[in-house]
């Protein structure tokens, strides 16, 4: 996993609550055995007017010229609800997103983002509202500083927090499986004490 | 003398599985059972190969083919090239890593969350994970069960553990008894209607109360299955005699003395009387009516004797906006009676409602209509959850009741719940579905899903609209 330190990027505001992972990456694109090839299908049903994905929907915000190249997704509450498909963060990442900012995330999606190195940031509703207003008026660029847990934009700043180990993992690009395999003796000791039925 | 603080069931399960809680690290939990399927596992296997790591406990891992498969043929190629590639990859991966696989046509094959319980792979007091959000189903046994992403699938493969932050706890008590004809699906939809679709995000929910205790194991599975639909990490029901009787004698369940010891341990799992929950929700069972969703998330649900709500019914601006968006997508007008909504597709199946009791309930409704057929213009399919369910249903003649009435009787699989195979709705189709999600496009781009019980789905197939079976 790539290390995450700071990131400065353009914000695209997606003003929809309860965005589910079926919307982020519809099921017909899950039939791959690789981790790549999902970005092109991100938000397929919204980005394209036809099922085949040949006609771009000009009204969908990700298709608007002023948001081209955006790397920070500003979202509403309960982002990433529904299916546990990790293909959703893979698709967001491959499309170019490094950070997602929302007032709340669905639990599984949030964990999946951390595990793939896509930074999910929770801000207060009022702060989210402020960012939506700012991004509606102008092209909003934010600097996200993970080591210092702060987002800045000119004079404005917003602080956020992550669980200690998740912050460490993202900053250091930890191979979480390798990290746990170093604890194999502890796991074996636990197994030795388990009851027979378990 | 030491005293122990009263604990919830979740806290006991957590404590029993805590391998390590090191400072500055996310706690490490032991995973007893890992269920896998073709869609969310291939990238995890690829990463194991890349790092030259084995599956640490292949005997704790069970694979089934369910998400992608055809419900018309047991041939691996019947559901298209993409599906076939994933199914073949699963077979190769299971062979290479020594994992038992229930592949196409195997007597144990079926939806992961149907076969786990019916084979005795699902045990109280265990942690069960699967790369599928409806893993919460197994919480019906008093197992801590939850869906995970593919990176976590890999972590479990390699270590048989997972790192998890501790969730908050919510008690949902359903007091008294439900009225006649009210199903487990109605109970859980009514709960989600009350909490909203994200009402339990960050929580592990424990369902209790007389109405929950009175449920069969299969009904409890329906309730726990939809825990994720209001954001819960997992749903739990305390194991009791109903649970032990169900588990005893199942193929993979412990036997003899080991089973007795297990039951003794399982009896200790229930929440202590004075355990404190972070949140409590209480419902009166007698107030729960048959439910139908009208919107595009499972929280947008109403009693069948109600009407389609108006955006003005919501004071929260986000809910109001969601209502406007949902009504547009669903092509519904506020004030329309739910019983006036016409459907042209019916799907009875999915890990929520495809077990034998679900099929019996649906068949019972079909019989009440005394020889009436699925109404013209409606296509109705029944997809049993597993080969065992299918076989049992056929031995009871349920398949005959369905096919005589014009339903299609299909082979087991996830099918139209998510439409990864060719069981997909067309744009504009309106479906009465016993599945778990009514998201935009879930069953097919531009299609409209109404979540209902098997009884309601069967009635909708015969009449072409939703029916208040109690009126």
From TrEMBL, chain A:
It comes from the Bacteria. Residues 1-125 form the Aconitase A/isopropylmalate dehydratase small subunit swivel domain. Gene3D superfamilies: Aconitase, domain 4 (3.20.19.10). CDD domains: IPMI_Swivel. Its EC number is 4.2.1.33. Pathway: Amino-acid biosynthesis; L-leucine biosynthesis; L-leucine from 3-methyl-2-oxobutanoate: step 2/4. Keywords: Amino-acid biosynthesis, Branched-chain amino acid biosynthesis, Leucine biosynthesis, Lyase. Signal peptide: none annotated. Coiled coil: none annotated. It is an enzyme of class 4 (lyase). Heterodimer of LeuC and LeuD. Belongs to the LeuD family. LeuD type 1 subfamily. Catalyzes the isomerization between 2-isopropylmalate and 3-isopropylmalate, via the formation of 2-isopropylmaleate. This is 3-isopropylmalate dehydratase small subunit. The lineage of its organism: Bacteria, Pseudomonadati, Pseudomonadota, Gammaproteobacteria, Alteromonadales. The gene is leuD.
From TrEMBL, chain B:
Catalyzes the isomerization between 2-isopropylmalate and 3-isopropylmalate, via the formation of 2-isopropylmaleate. This is 3-isopropylmalate dehydratase large subunit. Keywords: 4Fe-4S, Amino-acid biosynthesis, Branched-chain amino acid biosynthesis, Iron, Iron-sulfur, Leucine biosynthesis, Lyase, Metal-binding. The keyword Iron applies. It is an enzyme of class 4 (lyase). One of its GO terms (molecular function) is 3-isopropylmalate dehydratase activity. NCBIfam families: leuC (TIGR00170), PRK05478.1 (NF004016), PRK12466.1 (NF009116). PROSITE patterns: ACONITASE_1, ACONITASE_2. InterPro entries: 3-IsopropMal_deHydase_lsu, Acnase/IPM_dHydase_lsu_aba_1/3, Acoase/IPM_deHydtase_lsu_aba, Aconitase_4Fe-4S_BS, Aconitase_4Fe-4S_dom, IPM_dehydratase_rel_enz, IPMI_cat. Its cofactor is [4Fe-4S] cluster. [4Fe-4S] cluster binds at residues 351, 414, 417. Pfam families: Aconitase. Binds 1 [4Fe-4S] cluster per subunit. Its EC number is 4.2.1.33. Pathway: Amino-acid biosynthesis; L-leucine biosynthesis; L-leucine from 3-methyl-2-oxobutanoate: step 2/4. Residues 11-464 form the Aconitase/3-isopropylmalate dehydratase large subunit alpha/beta/alpha domain. The keyword Heme does not apply. Heterodimer of LeuC and LeuD. Belongs to the aconitase/IPM isomerase family. LeuC type 1 subfamily. It catalyses: (2R,3S)-3-isopropylmalate = (2S)-2-isopropylmalate.
